[in-house]
Amino acid sequence: MSQTALINLDGKSFELPTFEGTENEKAIDIAKLRDLSGFVTYDPGYKNTGATKSAITYLDGEEGILRYRGYSIEELADQSTFIEVAYLLIHGELPTVAELANFEKQIQSYTVVNEELLAIANAFPASTHPMCVLAAVVGAMSAFHSTDEAGDDEENILCLLATLPVMATWHYKKSLGEAVNQVDKSLDYCSSFLQMMFGKKGDAYLADPIVAKALNKLLILHADHEQNCSTSTVRLVGSSHANLFASISAGINALWGPLHGGANQEVIEMLEAIKADGGDTAKYVTMAKDKNSGFRLMGFGHRVYKNFDPRAKIIKVAADDVLKALGVNDPVLSIAQHLEDAALHDDYFVARKLYPNVDFYSGIIYRALGIPTNMFTVMFAIGRLPGWIAQWKELRTNKEPIGRPRQIYTGATLRSFVAISER
Ligand code: SDX
């Protein structure tokens, strides 16, 4: 029998229903609060507000638990592939051998380069940030695919999974003055991306299996993360029945922010600055504690994880392994390790439960894989795409209402217009 929440306001009492999810998370259903009491809730940043019920990803910030459709991130990162995880997130179950083979074949059938989209990407100056180009070309896909409500979203989903990594390489190749590469359909998803990034037209290029394996693990770790800023954006835009491409383009723009996915680029730039400044990590820990410094320890802290980000733990180990396996000696790795150690022994960070998040070590691996720094957040978007798609699909399948939060008005009360001659 679920309990009710008793609210006492203005001398009246109201009861609101509550409910529990499958992992015993509890919620007060406030749908009738305003009708009953005239009050709305107030929760900037939605820190305590559940926007939806979802069966896709479960995370427990206190225990450092992250599961996709019930499977632990540790098992998936260790035993699965990114495309298998994409299938799991979007369809809800792990695929059979035949289902996975068919899914991969369908995705590969959509990897053809759309010359008109390539022309749109090439219209941007070489100095443009790759996230700007990616958001633009994904939004432009609405012009080349059927997006009416009765449309075949399955086809658009496959097309997006196929073409996002292809389009992600275009601006990089332009910045090098190189022609874009066609997709090598004989390669797996990650090896094919690496070939398009680093292969030169006409030259045979095969990605180092260590690099492809590391990329596969990183993409799995980024694939979904319940109602984070960019996923909430995708759901909000999708709730107006905007098409999939428009919704994902909005998510790419939200992810670009330095407080969100843009942090992985900021972390490397921060570590580089510390290295250039003599590697004095204690100085930067002190700066991060000084509110007037305007400096934050990028890659630290999280809205939900108040113990440790399980992805950061996996990536930290992987960073060590990949750099050793590739024979890369990157001085910023030891700066990152010293910075983490300094912060984790400092009361300011401990009191605020600030630990390394997914972005703290990921850039060190991307760099070792040869990915340019300004493409780190693009890599985050490639990883997060199946999660965005799964969440958008869930919202539409569940016929959720258009999102439209309330506010508390604090502006001027009624006043009469004054003619300009009188002012
Ligand atoms: C991602 O939500 C998700 O799931 C996101 C994500 C995903 O997979 O989608 O996990 C990916 O976005 C990871 C976060 C990447 N961002 C960064 O690394 C940027 C640096 N971190 C922060 O700016 C911050 O920690 C946030 C944005 C991540 C969380 O911000 P909150 O929850 O709004 O917390 P807050 O800003 O209110 O901070 C609480 C306190 C404040 O101090 P007080 O006012 O209490 O004295 O902690 C301090 C903050 O000043 N603080 C930091 C800090 N982060 C928080 N102080 C120094 N350095 C930091 N990094």
The strands making up the biggest β-sheet line up spatially as 1-2-3
Main beta-sheet strand count, sense and barrel state:
3 strands, antiparallel
**What is the mean pLDDT?**
95
Bound molecules: s-citryldethia Coenzyme A
CATH class group of the largest domain: Mainly Alpha
Quote the CATH topology of the largest domain: Citrate Synthase, domain 1
Number of domains: 3
What separation lies between the terminal Cα atoms? 64 Å
Question: What is the helix content?
Answer: 40-55%
Give the CATH superfamily of the largest domain: Citrate Synthase, domain 1
Strand content: 5-15%
Stretches where pLDDT is under 50 for at least 5 consecutive residues are none
Please report the total strand number as a whole number. Answer: 6
Number of discrete helical segments:
18
Q: Briefly note the structural class of the backbone.
A: mainly alpha
CATH architecture of the largest domain: Orthogonal Bundle
Q: Give the C-alpha Rg.
A: 23 Å
